[in-house]
């Protein structure tokens, strides 16, 4: 073959390759457009939790929304149904009176030990409930989510157990050992993208749209909240004679706390529910601002208010208390010394008593939940040791 013909053939091959690449790109874009039209995800926020105006603001984004009359509802009825649904799928964790914590000061403390779940966390309830509520098509295609560590491990575990593929996007700040541990699960695809959770969130949304995967918000999806709130039902079934439940949180306006309170009040409206808020360490704060925006993805948004109050008191949380970091640190030491548990949230609840804000509860039967692993770093609940020593010294001198 002459050099001229070889050159012509080479140019023709190059043109064909370019055309093929363009066709592939066009097909991929069309596929993404089709998938985007199926894409949706949902979050829920609490509204006006104090007083007589408790309600939920549900935000459904995308094209695959709940049908009219089948909107999401977080109420005692839905939580009770979820508790029955989860029977046999999760462990019934113990709720036992402590013989060591503050007995000499007249407090009767019961510890609800959610850290005894298979994955050491209350989030097991929400993950299992959310996964089992997926459609068969969604289960086959898989789930995508974001995590800074603990939630990733939990969803990887239960996705494998239920044979549902899962993609977890973790920010670059995630510890390498957590990433490798999640990658050890067969059906888990772990991607490290973004310098923070907001960037990981955007990457996960892109993957969800391109691959037609179900995007699950691990904190604020209604089914995650409903599933975890079954803890309240279980507490009352185990300890029907209790007087008070302390619900710890590190998040202002916490949806999980509200839902657990609804479950407790639905079982027994006479039980006092107290929210104890510790150091504000909501790692997902920027993500929440993004998901609250109706213009996040330039896709249709369905937003509605759902009021769950049916035959229960309108005020489901009786008192709101905040505790300082030094008290949380002190409480974590006492919890470990007394019961050999390290639990950030249990320490927040215990700190409310140690700080003297709940002296009126002496003689009452008080439940403190130990939530176990959550997507929060230990540093969020501790303070500099020098500050603690100074505070501890001042405590004994006064």
Automatic annotation (TrEMBL):
Tagged with keyword GTP-binding: no
SUPFAM superfamilies: Tryptophan synthase beta subunit-like PLP-dependent enzymes (SSF53686)
InterPro entries: Ser/Thr_Dehydratase (IPR050147), TrpB-like_PALP (IPR001926), TrpB-like_PALP_sf (IPR036052)
Region (Disordered): 1-21
Domain of life per record: Eukaryota
Biased composition (Basic residues): 1-12
GO terms assigned for molecular function: L-serine ammonia-lyase activity; threonine deaminase activity
Annotated GO biological process: isoleucine biosynthetic process; L-serine catabolic process; L-threonine catabolic process
Keywords per UniProt: Lyase, Pyridoxal phosphate
Protein name as it appears in the record: L-serine deaminase
Positions of the Tryptophan synthase beta chain-like PALP domain: 89-371
Gene3D superfamilies: 3.40.50.1100
Cofactor(s) this protein requires: pyridoxal 5'-phosphate
Pfam family, one: PALP
């Amino acid at each position: 073959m002459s050099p001229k013909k070889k050159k012509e053939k080479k140019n023709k091959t190059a043109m064909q390759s370019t055309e093929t690449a363009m066709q592939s790109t066009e097909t991929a874009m069309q596929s993404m457009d089709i998938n985007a039209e199926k894409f949706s995800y949902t979050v829920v926020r609490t509204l006006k939790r104090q007083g007589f105006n408790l309600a939920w603001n549900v935000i459904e984004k995308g094209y695959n929304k709940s049908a009219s009359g089948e909107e999401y509802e977080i109420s005692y009825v839905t939580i009770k149904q979820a508790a029955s649904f989860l029977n046999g799928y999760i462990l019934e964790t113990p709720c036992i009176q402590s013989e060591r914590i503050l007995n000499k000061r007249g407090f009767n403390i019961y510890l609800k030990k959610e850290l005894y779940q298979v994955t050491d966390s209350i989030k097991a309830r929400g993950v299992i409930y959310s996964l089992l509520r997926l459609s068969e098509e969604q289960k086959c295609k898989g789930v995508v989510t974001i995590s800074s560590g603990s939630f990733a491990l939990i969803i990887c575990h239960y996705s494998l157990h239920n044979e549902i593929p899962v993609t977890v996007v973790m920010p670059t700040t995630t510890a390498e050992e957590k990433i490798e541990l999640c990658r050890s699960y067969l059906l888990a695809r772990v991607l490290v993208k973004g310098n923070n959770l907001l960037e990981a969130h955007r990457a996960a949304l892109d993957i969800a749209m391109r691959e037609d995967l179900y995007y699950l918000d691990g904190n604020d999806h209604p089914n995650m909240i409903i599933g975890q709130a079954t803890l309240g039902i279980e507490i009352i079934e185990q300890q029907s004679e209790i007087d008070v439940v302390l619900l710890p949180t590190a998040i202002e306006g916490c949806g999980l706390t509200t839902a657990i309170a609804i479950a407790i009040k639905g079982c027994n409206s006479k039980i006092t529910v107290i929210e104890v808020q510790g150091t504000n360490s909501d790692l997902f704060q920027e993500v929440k601002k993004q998901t609250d925006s109706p213009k996040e993805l330039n896709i249709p948004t369905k937003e509605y208010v759902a009021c769950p109050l049916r035959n229960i008191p309108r005020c489901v949380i009786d008192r709101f208390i905040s505790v300082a970091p030094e008290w949380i640190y002190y409480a974590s030491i006492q919890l470990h010394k007394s019961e050999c548990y390290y639990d950030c949230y249990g320490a927040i609840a215990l700190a409310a008593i140690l700080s003297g804000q709940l002296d009126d509860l002496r003689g009452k039967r008080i439940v403190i939940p130990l939530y176990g692993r959550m997507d929060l770093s230990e540093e969020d609940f501790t303070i500099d040791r020098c500050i603690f020593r100074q505070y501890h010294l001042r405590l004994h001198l006064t």
